[in-house]
């Protein structure tokens, strides 16, 4: 009832598919004079780290464009509203994008959208999912969820005695299970990654210093986080000395969101400009770099927030293990190398303006890719998933066709 080709070109009824909390900075001089923040302005603690609020028939998202100055939830009552929120980056992070997309469909289905009749219901589900995939194409999680959920709807509709009500309920329940699974997977990633990193970077014991990029925490997932989940686990084990987080221009997810999470949970951390990362590695004894991923392909090449590639190069130069932390749902073994990944390009105004105020000379040209691709040979620590930590060359054998976007499913 729902052909796989439906996720490419279709017409859609929804429309065309198209002051931060303070952290202490490094003091000049030798390592040891660094004074990482350990909580900062506790005014941040009046806000929440819950990016997605869902109950049957109701979905709200935390508008992350307003953080850390404001904490405001926005109701999402339709697939169209979810698409717009994802596209505008009110919600971001590959896992969270897929969750909000699928949960918005569940809200519409709970309200009675789709049908009448099984064929019309399945067509509605397929069209909605196909449309959601177009919001931000680089992250694979939404595309995989769309495939799996559309297939589920079609299979349930073909069962003997199937009813519209039963299919609707099964699709809604699947999305709710997806929310719970993401949180479980994140905790596994955090624990597996923390122990692997400690064995590699601190085999004799002691604490580690970790550098991370963008935001990969509770605000990018159902909770806990991926790369930031590893740092959380290290902190829980009492093995984290402190973390560096990059500001992550041009959207400043590191300064606005990751710093906010560190302050909220009293994890010792220091904010640096993107251009300071190599210097931090050279002067402050960084033990490991841990980043997230929006898509990992068969040879281990990884698409992540732009700026990741240069961090991997700097880490390799300094002999620092470089890790990628991502759920298996972010792994797409259908693509052989990173050259096949479609890289989203964002409007130039995101780089030339901050909060609507121009900071660049009028008339200057702008190139603003949202992601870059880190070659697999620079991922020297490993790829951390909920199933284990793998070297890039081990990924295909370890995960197999179960995570290929067009391959068989579990």
TrEMBL record:
Any Pfam family: IF-2B
GO biological process: L-methionine salvage from methylthioadenosine
Subcellular location(s) of the protein: Cytoplasm; Nucleus
Keyword Isomerase: yes
Reaction(s) catalysed (UniProt annotation): 5-(methylsulfanyl)-alpha-D-ribose 1-phosphate = 5-(methylsulfanyl)-D-ribulose 1-phosphate
Pathway(s) where this gene product acts: Amino-acid biosynthesis; L-methionine biosynthesis via salvage pathway; L-methionine from S-methyl-5-thio-alpha-D-ribose 1-phosphate: step 1/6
Main subcellular location: cytoplasm
Site positions per UniProt: Transition state stabilizer: 214
Keyword annotations of the record: Acetylation, Amino-acid biosynthesis, Cytoplasm, Isomerase, Methionine biosynthesis, Nucleus
GO molecular function: identical protein binding; S-methyl-5-thioribose-1-phosphate isomerase activity
EC number: 5.3.1.23
UniProt superkingdom: Eukaryota
Stored InterPro entries: IF-2B-related, IF-M1Pi, IF_2B-like_C, Initiation_fac_2B_a/b/d, M1Pi_N, NagB/RpiA_transferase-like
PANTHER family: METHYLTHIORIBOSE-1-PHOSPHATE ISOMERASE
Recorded family membership: Belongs to the eIF-2B alpha/beta/delta subunits family. MtnA subfamily.
Free-text function comment from the UniProt entry: Catalyzes the interconversion of methylthioribose-1-phosphate (MTR-1-P) into methylthioribulose-1-phosphate (MTRu-1-P).
Protein name in UniProt: Methylthioribose-1-phosphate isomerase
Lineage: Eukaryota, Metazoa, Chordata, Craniata, Vertebrata
